[in-house]
Design a protein that fits this description.
heterodimer; A: alpha+beta; Gyrase A, domain 2; six-stranded mixed β-sheet; six-stranded antiparallel beta barrel; about 20% helix; globular; B: OB fold (Dihydrolipoamide Acetyltransferase, E2P); six-stranded antiparallel β-sheet; about 35% strand
Chain lengths: ~350, ~130
């Protein structure tokens, strides 16, 4: 199978990237040391090609009412143009079809950003639901847009230097909101636990922005460091921490599910009918080794499983997210099966690190 | 970096150096460390452990993945490089200096079955597709 390429493919190769097959996309995993790239983002500024992710525009009368039904979080929280909401899109079973960000632009336009591997499935689902409930809506896949995430304490400054005119427009943006600048869309969002922007830009203009950002000192960061950064920041990864068989309430996402309002949404009845028996917790390995996805966890309340694990460059310890029986408490010591050994790990509250610093207490 | 011509190599990407006293020193190759990326953990075999040729006996873990290290020939473990416990990244910086363990081979002639540098380079290239 031919791998799909983003508009920045040649730029990655020119910068010495090691390219890998990432869900059918030819993507940079690192450009040298993954750990150095991780620290670069926590301490200064790095940029990521996330053009494999998909923008979806929903346009037309009644788009808010449709999203009120489609998403588990409540779009009525979005009142100011540009404001964004993180939400799951659920199946009627309550399983997670995808997690996404919905931006409210105006009452005729919401922009949604979904994961790469699930984009086609998501759009088919959205269209199927719209055909029943809101056939007037246009659901437009924005394959014509590239996306560059610029993250780190100095990220906003680098974007302002690279994009003349952007500072006045985005300096006042509160976190989790976006502004439109010509054909670009600049959002103060990210997947690292650092400040920064995610810039959506027409594909043909992306290499120029990438090169300009590089000239201003933004270093390219691969998907390897993207994963360690998001895990330290305690952010879920679709397909690992949750999927179609997992309830958001068992994936640490109860805060994104609105069960209080009268509003009905797809999956609500299933969530109400089956209260969670498990929960997602953070773990820090006390012994030497590395926690990885799918390792079994023995607790005083039964067995659990690691959903994402890695070595944390900020903590210099191995960390993980794990799904465990609901009675497991923060502070408990549990045992993790790693190869032929049982190693001790401590259950902690996550995130592990944000804004350049470790935030977990051991 | 080229693979030193005074070493022998395995298909599973270990390098093997014969010492003056007849023991052999084992590490992982430049090619292997490059594939794995930043090393964060090394588990060496216990001194005194008896190994069969091809037996899994050590683990190297990078941020990305865990990889087994295999005994290139049968023998007894006579030393492990404790320095790597606190500094696994030495394998990235100097793969042919950062040895993992040392064996006393059961039979020195077994070493003749290992690859030389040229054969190993051809092998590594064939795997790189």
């Amino acid at each position: 199978m031919t791998l799909r390429q983003t508009p920045l493919n040649a730029a990655h190769r020119a910068m010495g990237a090691k390219m890998v097959d990432f869900g059918g996309w030819d993507m940079p995993v690192n450009y040298g040391s993954q750990i150095d790239e991780h620290h670069q983002v926590r301490r200064d500024c790095g940029m990521f090609d996330v053009s494999h992710m998909r923008g979806v525009d929903m346009r037309g009368e009644g788009v808010r009412a449709f999203l009120r039904h489609l998403l588990a979080n409540n779009v009525d929280k979005l009142t100011l143009p540009g404001k964004a909401l993180y939400s799951c899109m659920l199946l009627p079973s309550g399983g997670v079809l995808d997690d996404l960000i919905a931006y409210f632009m105006n009452e005729q336009w919401f922009r949604i950003v979904v994961n790469a591997g699930t984009a086609d499935k998501d759009i088919a689902w959205m269209r199927e639901q719209a055909a029943k409930l809101a056939p007037q809506l246009e659901i437009i896949s924005r394959d014509d847009l590239a996306m560059i995430a610029v993250q780190g304490p100095n990220a906003r400054t680098k974007v302002w230097e690279a994009l003349p005119g952007s500072k006045a427009l985005t300096e006042q943006l509160v976190p989790f909101s976006a502004a439109v600048m010509g054909e670009m869309f600049i959002a103060r969002t990210g997947y690292t636990g650092e400040d920064g922007f995610e810039v959506m830009i027409p594909a043909q203009a992306a290499p120029f922005l990438w090169d300009t950002l590089a000239q201003k000192g933004a270093k390219p960061i691969g998907l390897g460091a993207r994963d360690t950064l998001r895990l330290e920041a305690g952010m879920n990864l679709y397909g690992q921490d949750m999927d179609e068989t997992i309830s958001p309430l068992e994936a640490g996402l109860a805060w994104t599910v609105d069960l209080k309002s009268e509003r009905d949404f797809i999956g609500k009845a299933a969530l109400l009918a089956s209260p969670p028996a498990r929960k997602l917790v953070g773990m820090v390995l006390l012994d030497r080794g590395v926690l990885r996805g799918h390792q079994k966890v023995n607790t005083a309340h039964g067995e659990g499983e690691i959903t994402s694990g890695t070595f944390s460059p900020t903590l210099e310890k191995s960390i993980a997210l794990a799904r465990v029986p609901k009675n497991v408490q923060i502070g408990d010591t549990v045992q993790v099966a790693i190869r032929d050994k049982m190693l001790a790990a401590k259950v902690v509250k996550y995130p592990f690190a944000r804004n350049g610093k470790a935030v977990v207490s051991l | 970096m080229s693979n030193p011509s005074n070493l022998k190599y395995t298909a599973s990407h270990e390098w093997v150096k014969t010492e003056a006293d007849g023991t052999i020193t084992i590490g992982i190759t430049q090619h292997a460390q490059e594939l794995l990326g930043d090393m964060v953990f090394v588990e060496s075999p216990a001194v005194g452990r008896k190994l069969k040729a091809g037996e899994e006996c050590a683990v190297v873990e990078s941020v990305k993945a865990a990889a087994d290290v295999y005994a290139p020939v049968g023998g007894e473990v006579v030393a492990a490089n404790g320095e790597l416990d606190g500094a696994p990244e030495k394998i990235n910086a100097d793969p042919y200096g950062a040895w993992i363990f040392r064996l006393k081979p059961d039979n020195a002639a077994d070493l003749n079955g290992l690859m030389d540098a040229a054969a190993y380079e051809a092998h590594a290239a064939s795997e790189a597709h």
